[in-house]
Amino acid sequence: MKHYIAAEFNPSTEITGGAWYTDGSLDSDFIGVLKATCLKFVPNLKVATLEGFVEAVKKSRVSQVELSKKQIEELVESLVCDNELMKVKSTGIGEFASIPVGKVCYKRIDKGNRVSGAMASIPCGVCPQISICTPDGIVSPKTCVYYNTWLDF
């Protein structure tokens, strides 16, 4: 299907794909550079707001086109989905002191020294059947293969 447009009109983002597309295909290199720019911005502040990300991307001049707040939000939300950032609400205390209470902000997820909770180290802590596990039921510590293996360890 062909689309025609007068020279004085800009094509819709539904047709062009918007800022994330170049020549009809997803520009993953451009997206990667923008994500890296956002991640570099967070460690300096420990906590960042969407407005902070918008300003950081503008100042970095990595994009030749003006990106909207909505587009930067899409980018930041993809970093949340990638487990690079955590979405939190400001408490107004400590590292959140400069951010109004209740405002959504983002923190960098520390990928180093992860400490698991006490329940994660035993099979019961991660068992999908824990809700039906009872001492005298079909699913029980006596019949659990994982629990017995863990006890033998």
From TrEMBL:
The entry's protein name is DNA-directed RNA polymerase III subunit RPC6
Got a GO cellular component term for this one? RNA polymerase III complex
Q: Which residues form a coiled coil?
A: none
Question: InterPro entries in the record, alphabetically?
Answer: RNA_pol_Rpc34, RNA_pol_Rpc34-like
The record's keywords, sorted A to Z, are: Nucleus, Transcription
Top-rank taxon:
Eukaryota
Q: Which organism is it from?
A: Rubroshorea leprosula
Where mainly located? nucleus
The signal peptide annotation in the UniProt record is none
Q: Which Gene Ontology terms describe the biological processes this protein takes part in?
A: transcription by RNA polymerase III
Question: Which locations, inside or outside the cell, does it occupy?
Answer: Nucleus
Q: Which Pfam families match?
A: RNA_pol_Rpc34
